[in-house]
Amino acid sequence: MTTRRRMPKRTWLTDSPVAAVVLPIIGLAAAIGLWWGATVAFSIQPYLLPSPWDVVVKFFEQPGYLLQETGTSLLETIEGFLLAIVIGVPIALVIVRSVILERLAYPLLLMVNSIPKVAIAPLLVIWMGFGQWPKVVMVLLMCFFPIVISTAQGMKSTPTELVELMRSLNASRAQEFFKLRLRYAMPQIFTGFKVAISLAVIGSVISEFVGATKGLGYVIQQSGASADTTLAFAAITLLSVMSIVLFYALVLLEHWLLPWAQEKR
Amino acid sequence: MTTRRRMPKRTWLTDSPVAAVVLPIIGLAAAIGLWWGATVAFSIQPYLLPSPWDVVVKFFEQPGYLLQETGTSLLETIEGFLLAIVIGVPIALVIVRSVILERLAYPLLLMVNSIPKVAIAPLLVIWMGFGQWPKVVMVLLMCFFPIVISTAQGMKSTPTELVELMRSLNASRAQEFFKLRLRYAMPQIFTGFKVAISLAVIGSVISEFVGATKGLGYVIQQSGASADTTLAFAAITLLSVMSIVLFYALVLLEHWLLPWAQEKR
Amino acid sequence: MIRLDGVGQVFDGREGQVTALEKIDLHVRGGEFVTLIGRSGCGKSTLLRLIAGLLPPTSGAVQVAGQPVTGPRRDVSFMFQRPALLPWRSVLSNVMLPVEIDKGQGDRGKAAYRDRARQLLELVGLQGFERRLPHELSGGMQQRVSLCRSLIRDPQVMLMDEPFSALDALTRTELSEELQRIKMELSTTIVFVTHSIEEAVLLADRVVVLTPRPGRMREVVDIDIPRPRSLGQNAHLTEVAAISGRLHALLAEKESGEPGVPGEVRPVDEVRP
Amino acid sequence: MIRLDGVGQVFDGREGQVTALEKIDLHVRGGEFVTLIGRSGCGKSTLLRLIAGLLPPTSGAVQVAGQPVTGPRRDVSFMFQRPALLPWRSVLSNVMLPVEIDKGQGDRGKAAYRDRARQLLELVGLQGFERRLPHELSGGMQQRVSLCRSLIRDPQVMLMDEPFSALDALTRTELSEELQRIKMELSTTIVFVTHSIEEAVLLADRVVVLTPRPGRMREVVDIDIPRPRSLGQNAHLTEVAAISGRLHALLAEKESGEPGVPGEVRPVDEVRP
Amino acid sequence: NDDDSGKQAGGDGLQKVNYLTSFNTFGREAYAYVALEKGYFKDAGFDVKITPGSGTVDVMKLVAGGQADYGIGDFTAIAITLAKQKLPVTTAGMIHQRSMAAIMSLEGLGINSPKDLPGKTIGDQPGSTNTVMFPVYAKAVGIDPASVTFLPSPPPGLPALLASGKVQGIGQFVVGQPLIEKADKDKHRKAVVLPYGKALPELYGNAIITRTDMAKDHPDQVKKFTNALLKGLQDTYDDPDGAAEILKKYVPNTDVDVAKAELKIMKDYIKPTGFEGPLGDVTQERVQKVISLLEESNAIGKGAVKPEDLVTMSLAPKS
Ligand SMILES: Nc1ncnc2c1ncn2[C@@H]1O[C@H](COP(=O)(O)OP(=O)(O)OP(=O)(O)O)[C@@H](O)[C@H]1O
Ligand SMILES: Nc1ncnc2c1ncn2[C@@H]1O[C@H](COP(=O)(O)OP(=O)(O)OP(=O)(O)O)[C@@H](O)[C@H]1O
Ligand SMILES: [Mg+2]
Ligand SMILES: [Mg+2]
């Protein structure tokens, strides 16, 4: 007769809000340690992979400059991401509403999504000039697809019994979507957002490779040309930090907006 | 007193399997029409955006060659994608299993995911040579994150009542995962796959920008050498087609594997 | 008020077709209380869904208030067999859902409805639970919330699928009395599915007995006991007993019509002591 | 077999704490059939989950077979209040789930279990539905599948949460007879939640009455009627009526302890022909 | 694997060697394919695999990292990179005796001579030779470097940017002229080329890169390889059309006409008029001159590199 301990184990590590902040930081520290260890153990040369320490030193050589570039990229990322939500969610609504439209629209969405963005970055600049627009559009193109597809999938998986409830209440299509399906899909939509936000950051970088004079993408591009690998990694590190911060901002937002959807393990 | 027609409308367009193939093709044709229309209406010059017709002509100049390069990219894409599944799903299992590990691991995953892949393509070549490996690894890096995150999210959203059922049957953790959570998460996992497959294709292209002598990415890169925008677009079109085909292959697979999860609208 | 003519329903399952209902002819008058009884799986829920306009019948025609049913109507409320609560809404706002959806068309203000909702929740014994989320409630409590939701708009027609199945005897009694009161005050037309023959007799003007596979109407029994009825302490104990006995027999009967022979080897499904 | 000492359960809800159970002391002997009754929301399901090891009590201790409960045990089966069927599995493979999970530890071969599953499905009237998916079944049919699943492994201890609530009177009677047979043949220990006082009396060796908010044990009533019992046609009609009356009174009692006045409003459910 | 890639022997006794072009497979890279096609590599005992490079710095890293044994890169870029990072690479010879760096424009965009540059926008890859050397060039032609705006863009997008008029000029190698003209195939404008080499004749163009340890431990091999490659270069010089055809054979997408035109333009940079030395020649004095120019333009710090950090003189081809 087997009896296994299987009741939910609750410890300080799982429950405390302090642990919820401390553990990811430990994880990050471990990751950085790994990176450092690798540079030391395999004596990787700094032109291939600089050590975290080099990167930190590089950052403090010109913190103001790098932070300003980060700000530029961040702004583009957030604008493009919000635009992707504004455009992506309605597209998902349409797709869920009509099988016919879904079938017509998917190939188009897929086509747009599957184009390698690096290849069309110059095109965007030519069409839209050197301002903010081609950057925002690039971010949008990069990240709208996960938003569309997870919103659509989430709304489609609403349980029949709840859909029937709304119909029995004679709810309009709009009400069915906004009061039920969209709410029900929220956890999955947030999954989409979490995937999209990293892509948005990458989109801003790629867009800054072409025709930009600021932003972290520009810094990387520039440092690549002058073989300043450490500067490139400083920029990449800032990008990672930006991604991580934006991701956890989404996690917090989800926690706050969707208390009913807390995870069950 | 309002009475709206709201019973599920079923017509040839929604039900026939022929329509399920024909409609996407119409959608695609419309998209191509739009593209053509744009090149004509705005008299866009071919070095910016060639017309679909130019692209088709270009393709038939050397169909064998282009198809062969497509095959190369396709192979890399599929290998990397499968590797991403093989690596991503177990990571998701671990994440769902333990809050502590989740909190430790997420920042690392995010860090890896948020690095702009274009920037590290040369690094991969330096580490892994000119063979298949850096390409496969690039595809992997590009697409593992959506797989991890949607698998984890899907498994976390398994209804408490079903989890309690498994526990009451004294199921082991492994059984809980394989017989319940993984199955339950399948629709969401497929959402992740669908997002990931497009990224995988893009990953293969990016990887072929550096140190490759074949593949569609190489063709795009090369077309730059001869200012052959049309060739670049022929390659991009083939990439799109590849993406679309792989996407629909996933849709078919889902349909076949998960008959119980058919969509409700 | 409700009229079904030759209604049939066939489902396409993975394993072939299931005829859930066949040749249902039923006319429910305005203000009438009809209970539906029948073995599990005989098509009761399906019948309600047809009337509610949630499912188009594969044959025959359904009318409500003289109009053919093409979809759900705002004057018909449906209480489902499962509670179907929105998990992100508190108890109170789950009850208020129909009002929100019908905004602008309601005859009272939202505040009035909110008072009504609180009143209903108190009636079913859920005072103090207004702000809880569904997963914090027991099964019976969820069912009661669902009941309140179906009552909030004082609908013309109420379709109720086993509304009291998860409730204890006392709550059940209280709520069936409340339901009778509502019916008499507002002359609501009610179609009510139950597995309790007592409940069927206590509440109904007419009891419809369905036979299983395919679901056909076995018989319609009129109940002429004067209202308000309260079982166990009215003067009609023997009448109730007689009708209940008859309904039991009807349920136990084979589809062919002959009464079940006791002692014979019969499908489990059919035998009754 | 089952022993609860001073068990209490407090939930942390969004809106503050709920004391679901308080000071529960209960000893269930091996082979005993105990039914739990109480108003909706009084903590019956919670009590079963504590015994099943699905929830650690916030106070007190739970023992099964002499061992403290730290998690689910393979010799205890739990039938939930909701059917909880895996939507991607056919009826038959839902029933086979416990066997699959317990593979290697079963005393019979898989084929033997499969036969047993078919036999159980036939017993509950689901022959021919083996290969259907749960969403193609009616509510009562789903509940019967869940019942079969909880019976498949002939467990030592069965915890059943309103197993017959969605079933019609006939099926209910048949299945309660089957349950008594199982209990007597295999001397299974059963804890059974129901809202039907008849069912409680018909099945139980002892009936435990819980009072609501917080759930406390009001009284434990021994039922000494010899088995097999079959309501409505055995020699102990008066005894049954007396006990039922007493249970009613207990349920209706205010928590303070004064008895409800008999002859007062009584549950519908309780008068049977 | 540190240094033995040069010693790896194939089944036929040939040493496997990885060679990287400087950027892509433009016509200007044809000489390697010529050497391959004509068997010069094989005769020297090498089994060469040619892979398109992705810019000087990438090529340097790949060579330094051991993935490639030889590569081609712009000498100025090499000097700047080595001044910043001590990569274990060195130069074994020159392909071009004069820098091919230039500002390129199209007629009608308002640039006809260096004097027109002030106030214009130039698209270029950040950190490219063209951008970095611009201040030196500006000084040489007598304009204010600050009066010209540089707009970053990766090389593949440059021709389209110029053709669309978003920028008035782009940084480009002189051999890019046919390509730029081809990209503008609708308007058929002529390219305007402002080569740096005219004002700054000291600057070298592309150079042959190899690893330092290889140069130290196996100088004979390096010499053999360089000579084989330079033989291909000589043939290309003698017969640009034939070289373009050979390139087309290995890289089917080559636009032969563009490649031929490129190679013809390139002749003047392989052997400028007045150049007397052997093919691939490199001299200490000129290298020193390049370094001073770079120091002058602040592209590198004073004393950051010495000629011997950049070039292994002993490997330089002798006539
Ligand atoms: N979506 C469906 N697909 C296939 N068959 C279905 C579907 N819905 C219902 N059925 C079948 O129709 C029949 C009637 O189902 P229904 O839910 O109406 O029964 P019911 O009388 O409400 O039973 P219960 O008392 O158990 O709730 C059943 O045999 C069921 O298997
Ligand atoms: N997860 C939870 N969070 C907060 N409160 C809970 C939770 N689960 C149950 N409760 C509360 O505990 C009490 C007892 O619930 P339980 O489900 O045990 O009742 P029950 O006796 O089974 O009722 P029913 O007959 O309606 O099924 C209820 O008041 C309920 O609101
Ligand atoms: Mg039903
Ligand atoms: Mg309960």
Automatic annotation (TrEMBL), chains A, B:
Pfam families: BPD_transp_1. Keywords: Cell membrane, Membrane, Transmembrane, Transmembrane helix, Transport. This is NitT/TauT family transport system permease protein. It is found in: Cell membrane. It is a multi-pass membrane protein. The chain crosses the membrane at residues 21-44, 81-101, 108-130, 136-155, 189-211, 231-258. InterPro entries: MetI-like (IPR000515), MetI-like_sf (IPR035906). Residues 70-254 form the ABC transmembrane type-1 domain. Its main location: membrane. Gene3D superfamilies: MetI-like. Belongs to the binding-protein-dependent transport system permease family. CDD domains: TM_PBP2 (cd06261).
Automatic annotation (TrEMBL), chains C, D:
SMART domains: AAA (SM00382). Coiled coil: none annotated. InterPro entries: AAA+_ATPase (IPR003593), ABC_transporter-like_ATP-bd (IPR003439), ABC_transporter-like_CS (IPR017871), ABC_transporter_ATP-bind (IPR050166), P-loop_NTPase (IPR027417). GO terms for molecular function: ATP binding. Signal peptide: none annotated. Residues 2-237 form the ABC transporter domain. Keywords: ATP-binding, Nucleotide-binding, Transport. CDD domains: ABC_NrtD_SsuB_transporters (cd03293). Residues 254-273 are annotated as: Disordered. Gene3D superfamilies: P-loop containing nucleotide triphosphate hydrolases. This is NitT/TauT family transport system ATP-binding protein. It comes from Kribbella pratensis.
